[in-house]
From TrEMBL:
InterPro entries: RNA_pol_sigma-70-like, RNA_pol_sigma-70_dom, RNA_pol_sigma70_r2, RNA_pol_sigma70_r4_t2, RNA_pol_sigma_r2, RNA_pol_sigma_r3/r4-like, WH-like_DNA-bd_sf
Residue ranges of coiled coil: none
Domain RNA polymerase sigma factor 70 region 4 type: 112-163
SUPFAM superfamilies assigned: Sigma2 domain of RNA polymerase sigma factors, Sigma3 and sigma4 domains of RNA polymerase sigma factors
Protein name: Sigma-70 family RNA polymerase sigma factor
Pfam families hit by this protein: Sigma70_r2, Sigma70_r4_2
Signal sequence, start to end: none
Keyword Transcription regulation on entry: yes
Recorded family membership: Belongs to the sigma-70 factor family. ECF subfamily.
GO terms (BP aspect): DNA-templated transcription initiation
Provenance organism: Pseudooceanicola spongiae
Domain RNA polymerase sigma-70 region: 20-84
Keywords on record: Sigma factor, Transcription, Transcription regulation
Single Gene Ontology MF annotation: sigma factor activity
Length: 172
């Protein structure tokens, strides 16, 4: 174990694996874990041993105790996960036939939004379209445009304020 911890020695790890893998599998199967699941847990445990080798301290525990503790904890994690109830499936309502009145109102609102966007400065409109239509983050906009972050945020904020003011009648 010390060679695995200190030099990441693969041959030493192979010997650890060969010695502990069947013992861990036996321990798991004696506790009621099916053979296939036990093999999966053994793989997880030995992978954890490889990745966490730097955490092994011979002054605190023996190699066997440390490895069996990892195996026991992994078994408990899997048992807990199996006992978790699955989330209930949310029923989605089928979409009712579109009401022509709603469609007309939606089209009119979309037209008003386009008109209000056209009254913004080109700089504000461009950034708002990138952020909300293009679904870009401020960082992505900055990468594309080369503008400073403060400029991007200010233009978007001022443009949105103006849109809110122009479209306030839609909310009522």
């Amino acid at each position: 174990m010390l060679a695995v911890r200190d030099q990441r020695d693969r041959a030493s790890f192979a010997r650890l694996f060969g010695f502990y893998a069947p013992r861990i599998k036996g321990m798991l199967m004696r506790s009621g874990v099916p053979a296939a699941a036990a093999e999966d847990i053994v793989q997880d445990v030995m992978l954890a041993v490889w990745h966490k080798a730097a955490q092994f301290d011979p002054a605190r525990s023996q190699v066997s105790g440390w490895i069996y503790k990892i195996a026991r904890n992994r078994q408990i994690d899997i048992a807990r996960k199996a006992q978790r109830p699955l989330p209930e499936e949310i029923e989605t309502q089928t979409r009712p036939e579109e009401d022509p009145g709603h469609l007309l109102a939606f089209e009119q609102e979309a037209g008003q939004l386009k008109e209000a966007l056209s009254r913004l400065s080109p700089e504000q409109r461009d950034l708002i379209v990138r952020a909300y239509v293009g679904d870009l983050t401020h960082r992505e906009i900055q990468t594309e445009t080369g503008l400073p972050m403060g400029t991007i945020k200010s233009r978007i904020r001022l443009g949105l304020d103006r849109l809110r003011h122009e479209l306030k009648d839609l909310r009522n």
